[in-house]
Amino acid sequence: MKDEQMKALFREKIQGELSGLSTSSLQQNRFYQNAVGGYKVKKKLTVGLVLALALMLLTLTAVAVEFLTGMQLVEQLAVPLAQKNEQKNYTHEEMTELLRALNENGIALDESSTLMQAFQSGRGYWERDTIREICRAAFGGTENTWTLEQKHWYGEMLVAIGDWEINLWLIPEEGDMTKEEARNHAAKALKKKFGAALPVESNENWVIHDVFNLVWDQETNAYPPEKAEWYISYINRTTDREDFSVTFTRQGELLDVWKNPSAAEAIPAGNAAPAPLYPQESEAIAQYGNVMYYWPPEIQVQVYGYPHAIPAREDYEHALEIAKKAILDQYGPDALEALGEYQVGLLHTAVQNETNGAAVLGWDFILTTDPEFLSDGYRVQFQQAPDDKTGAETIINLSVENANLGNG
Questions:
Q1: pTM (2 d.p.)
Q2: Residue 227 contacts by C-beta under 8 Å, 6 or more apart in sequence?
Q3: Alpha-carbon distance 189 to 193, whole Å?
Q4: How do residues 94-126 score in pLDDT, each as one tens digit?
């Protein structure tokens, strides 16, 4: 092979291998010149030595870019750490180990997140939410924007750490409606009911979220495998609010077509989205903090809209007593007294039952002495609605857990 041909081939190889490294074109050129006899080497190298150098560079390059992905870090480090813990939070020392591994592998978490603020104050953090933040950094966006495969894998990790009993997020199987079919049917259903000409792919006006998951069966108090549903929702890019949604069975039977009462009337695809109706979430965070449970109810409603609602005082007081009793039943009669001077935070929703017109009230309480980081206390969630037959009050989906993020 002629010397000039050898130079050309070697230059092509070197440039290809250096393309993934942080080197300038000048640095690449100097490396090439030095290897084949440029201005810093008085005597040209032999072809054999040039090939040896190329082989060495290939080896070094392979080692340099062999980083662990976010999924690998979760599987190999985050999950095993969680599995050996009795509590549901990582200690500050475990968080230090996790963050060091993330940094070494080029994965950066949002510095403004509650997780990072808690860590910087010397605290630990929930295992579930730590894994979620790693996945958000690795996949981009929030859970709603992840692919069905990413959601399913994330659900498997929550099962592995004992946060979920079963994986609620599914991947369509043979006989199930596909994502493409679900989106097409959703757009047709919304057009038919509301006259809204909505797209089947996200565009400059709308972000489409696809969820395929198991749903709770109140009769059996379980998540039966056959009861899976598609939930297709349309998020208004201007207001960051869910304005439309459609629900199907896994085989495609239409269950519900919904429109946010605050949404503008039929919005043709391609038209400009309506002007913002609510202040931006970032403004509320700046004024009231990251934990929206402790925002004034009217601010929650202004920012998030329907179904968030301002509770009536008598409803609030009654629901709070239900929450306190649930805490005492699960954690003992002295649980609240031992907690001390706690503060109550709440997310409240109100949805009308389309069958009987009755209001279904949603309650999500946090009782803690540390509203900034939730380093202690309890969280209680439930829905409250009249029984369809008797009209008597019923409590649905009651759950009680620690609100503790851990202080390391």
A1: 0.68
A2: 214, 215, 217
A3: 6
A4: 999 999 999 999 999 988 888 898 899 888 888
